[in-house]
Write a structure and sequence with these properties.
Elements (H helix, E strand, L loop, with lengths): L1 H24 L3 H25 L4 H23 L2 H9 L1
């Protein structure tokens, strides 16, 4: 089972290369943000897969922290871009 988890982790790392291409060449900021979310989600899944392989339950805790940081990042992006940012400038 450990070999299966390692293979899946490598496949997920390959998907990150596609996401990196989208971050570098994305036509809009929203596309780049979605690719960044791909990085966060993939990192969480890889850590969850590797926790039993290396017998390190602390990796699950790190994955939880990454998931929380990814959610905060999306909230910050939405708040700073689009209509929300324009309304704050008009009030000031």
């Amino acid at each position: 089972m450990a070999t299966f988890y390692m293979v899946i982790s490598v496949v997920l790392l390959l998907t990150l290369s596609v996401g990196l291409w989208r971050v570098l060449r994305g036509p809009s900021a929203a596309d780049r943000m979605m690719a960044s979310q791909l990085f966060g989600t993939t990192a969480v899944v890889i850590l969850l897969l590797l926790a039993p392989v290396f017998e390190q339950p602390a990796l699950r805790d790190v994955a939880l922290v990454f998931a929380l940081l990814a959610a905060v990042t999306v909230v910050a992006f939405v708040r700073c871009s689009g209509a929300g940012g324009e309304r704050q400038d008009e009030e000031a």
